[in-house]
């Protein structure tokens, strides 16, 4: 799934148990981001798609994807077995259409059969745990498995280009969490405790979000020809694009 440090963090039972409740408070746009990513996909709901989920977590994205595409199948990769167990429970009967793979998605080429190809590859709140070079590697490996005209979509965290802007966004973020928690969660009882929890969590998980411009640069370097920003609010973004088919090589000196 993620870097070694963040994988271990998500295999702690207490962390897994509180994951979705914390995510709802910290990232209230999560469902909206997934909905936008799915809305972009141009495929008929009747199509028998095959998709890859990079870091399934508790199964939020895959649950929505399988609901939109009743004939689809998903290969779900995650490095934390405890999270996959939670995803299975959330998916219920839909888990029959999911092949779960416990492993580090930085080694995607060794985790999946060589011939396996996908119509859609998606990820949410997972790739920001990686160092830049690892992120390029993961996405490059994934794109090699993506069919021509297939879609790559990522719903994830970013940081502001300017440190002053990032500081202000973090202030807005903390205020929002405290307001949504409404005193019902000890870790989010006030601004100081919320900031402390966020700092400790991000250190434990080895978070490495980058700016939006850097994120798009990573996608290009990995091989996505024209990555696009599909949605953006403060420090969260949905990015991605379609894989262009390889143009046939023209013979030198031959006219079109």
Draw up the topology in text.
Layout: H1 4-10, H2 13-26, H3 30-40, E1 50-54, H4 60-68, E2 73-78, H5 81-91, E3 98-102, H6 108-111, E4 118-124, H7 132-145, E5 146-157, H8 163-181, H9 191-205, H10 212-222, E6 228-233, E7 236-242
Parallel strand pairs: 1-2, 1-4, 2-3, 4-5
Antiparallel strand pairs: 5-7, 6-7
Can you tell me the number of structural domains?
A: 1
**Percent of residues in β-strands:** 15-25%
CATH class: Alpha Beta
Per CATH, the architecture is 3-Layer(aba) Sandwich
Head-to-tail CA distance between termini: 46 Å
| Number of helices in the DSSP assignment | 10
Oligomer: single chain
Total count of strands: 7
Q: Largest sheet at a glance?
A: 7 strands, mixed
CATH topology type: Rossmann fold
Percent helix range: 40-55%
Radius of gyration: 19 Å
CATH superfamily: Vaccinia Virus protein VP39
Query: What is the element string, with H for helices and E for strands?
Result: HHHEHEHEHEHEHHHEE
**Global shape:** globular
Uncertain spans: 7-13, 250-256
Q: Structural class, from secondary structure content?
A: alpha/beta
Mean pLDDT: 90
Question: What strand order characterises the main sheet?
Answer: 3-2-1-4-5-7-6
């Amino acid at each position: 799934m993620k870097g070694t440090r963040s994988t271990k963090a998500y295999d702690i039972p207490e962390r897994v148990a509180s994951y979705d409740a914390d995510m709802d408070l910290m990232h209230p746009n999560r469902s909206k981001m997934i909905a936008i990513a799915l809305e972009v996909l141009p495929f008929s709901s009747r199509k028998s798609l095959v998709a890859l989920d990079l870091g399934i977590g508790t199964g939020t994205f895959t649950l929505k994807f399988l609901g939109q595409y009743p004939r689809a199948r998903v290969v779900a990769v995650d490095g934390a077995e405890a999270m996959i167990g939670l995803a299975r429970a959330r998916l219920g009967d839909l888990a029959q259409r999911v092949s779960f793979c416990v492993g580090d998605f930085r080694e995607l080429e060794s985790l999946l059969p060589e011939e396996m190809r996908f119509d859609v590859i998606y990820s949410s709140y997972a790739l920001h745990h990686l160092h830049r070079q690892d992120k390029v590697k993961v996405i490059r490996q994934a794109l090699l498995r993506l069919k021509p005209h297939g879609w790559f979509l990522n719903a994830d965290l970013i940081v502001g280009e300017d440190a002053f802007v990032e500081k202000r966004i973090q202030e807005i973020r903390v205020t929002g969490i405290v307001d949504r928690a409404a005193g019902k969660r000890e870790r989010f009882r006030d601004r100081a405790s919320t900031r402390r929890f966020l700092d400790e969590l991000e250190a434990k998980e080895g978070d490495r979000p980058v700016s939006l411009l850097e994120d798009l640069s990573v996608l290009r370097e990995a091989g996505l020809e024209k990555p696009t920003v599909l949605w953006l609010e403060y420090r969260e973004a949905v990015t991605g694009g379609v894989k262009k088919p390889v143009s046939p090589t023209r013979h030198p000196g031959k006219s079109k």
